[in-house]
Each structure stands twice: as structure tokens, then as C-alpha cells.
Amino acid sequence: MAVKKVLALHGYSQNATIFYKKLGALRKYCGKGIEFVFVDAPHILRPVDLEGINPTALGAAEAATDSEPNPEELPRGWWRTNPERTKYDGVAESVAVLRDVLAKNRFDGIFGFSQGAAMAALIAAILEKPHLYPPFLIDGQAPHPPMTFCVVISGFKPIDPNWKHFFDPDYSTPTLHVFGLNDVIMTPERTRSLVEVSANRRVASHTGGHFVPANAPWKLFLREYIKDPFGNVPQPATSDEALALASSLNGTPTTSAPASGRVSPALANP
């Protein structure tokens, strides 16, 4: 059986090592049939970048007490943003890093959490329209074919004017959107902004907060989606409210086993 190779992008204030550990239970459950490749964002965050932010709430490591910082615990981000979250500083450098990774490897899909989820969706969209951003090209060609799937956990639509056009009117990479009803950091309303421009989507929600769900049903669900993005894998059991919201965003009737696979462009704006 061929191994599925997945590019994994960490959240804001995390890094590749932290995300590797956070996905430990899922990685173990996926076994040798799925390989996650973790990449560091290029921007090391400064104290000013974390003012007013609780990094542990974002899934980062607890602050080190040693005088010398541990390189494996340095908080990183794919970009820095203004207070209005409308301008992103550093995206071009992150895209360049990922371009080079893509040029040296072949991936089946991309998996991101929080800011890394937005970055994953952006990379998926750029791979569909690479000539809209010439610096992404290598010898005039995209470094990698479009992804066969994208998994975004607590994601959102990038709205910086320099990048949002990749989602105009939408992007077509099959995408699984997962979010928590009680996520106060990346609210369902912000997640919906990305769902609405995802032409081929599957939406699943849980009752938790800002994290990658990792109990047994969710590990099974994520593993089976990665193995077959168009398979009929039921969403894990959750509250009626979570099921109803996920079903409405999927464009399907409320059910514990919402239909999966492609969603017609007519349902792109629920």
C-alpha cells in the first residue's frame, strides 16, 4: 500500500516540534500508511508579537523558565498581523519556504491548525493558480501539482489584499474543515469565512475549543478522510448543535453521518 504523505503546518506561536508532539496520538493511530512532514514557519515571534496572547491557549508550549531559550520551544508564526487582522507581514517569506519544501517532495495533501490552517488553504489555492504569484514558480512552473486534499483545523480565510484573490471566487481543492463550537480564539464565524470559499468541502464540528480533536472517533475520522477524501466516513458523534451547524455548512440535511465528497458550486455560499 502506498504511503500517504501529508505536509503539516503548525499554528501561531507553535513550531514544527510542538505540532509534532501535539499530533502524537493521531500520528500513532495513522500508523505507517500516513507520513506527516512538519515544517517550521520562518518567523520567530518576539515578546511584542505575543502581547495580550496566551500561547498555551493557542496550543504552544508553556513558557520556559531557563535563561537560555530552547530552540525547539521558540514560538513561530507564518505571518504577523495588524490589530485589525487585515494586513499580514511575512507571508511571502513563508510561501517561499513552503515552495522550496514542495519542490523537493511530493505530497498527497496538506494539514494545518489555526494560522497554519489558513496557510494550508492558501498554499492549496496558490497551487491551483500558481501563475498569479510569479515568485512561487520555479523555471516558470509550479513546484508541485495541486493537493489532492486539505485538512484545516480551526482555520480562517486570509483577507490580506495581497493574498485573498487566490480565493476569488473560491478554491477547489477537496477540504475538510474542522472547528469547535466553543473555540473562543477562532470562532465558528471566522471559520465560516473559509468554508464559504471552499467549493469542494466537508465540514465537521465538535463541542470543544481551540485544538485538534484526538479522541478515538476523531482519530478514526481524520485517518479515514486522509486515506480517502471522498469516502463516506460518518462524522464522530457530537451534540445536535454541532451536527446541525456542520450539516448546514456542508449543504446537507442534519444527520450523524453527513454526506461527504464534492459539494456543488451552487452550495458554496450557504
Question: What does the model show?
Answer:
The protein is α/β, with parallel strands linked by helices. It has a single domain (4-267), classed as Alpha/Beta hydrolase fold, catalytic domain (Rossmann fold), CATH 3.40.50. The chain is built from seven helices and ten strands. The protein has helices spanning 16-22, 24-30, 91-104, 115-128, 188-195, 216-227, 240-250; strands spanning 4-9, 34-39, 43-44, 76-77, 80-81, 88-89, 109-113, 149-153, 175-180, 201-206. The strands form three sheets. It has a six-stranded parallel beta sheet with strand order 2-1-7-8-9-10, sandwiched between helices. Strands 3-4 form a two-stranded antiparallel ribbon. Strands 5-6 form a two-stranded antiparallel sheet. β9, α5 (188-195) and β10 form a beta-alpha-beta unit. α2 (24-30) packs across α6. The longest helix is centred in the middle third of the chain and has 14 residues, at 91-104. InterPro entries: AB_hydrolase_fold, FSH-like_dom, LovG. Residues 247-258 have a biased composition (Polar residues). Residues 61-80, 244-270 are annotated as: Disordered. This is FSH1-domain-containing protein. GO terms for molecular function: hydrolase activity.
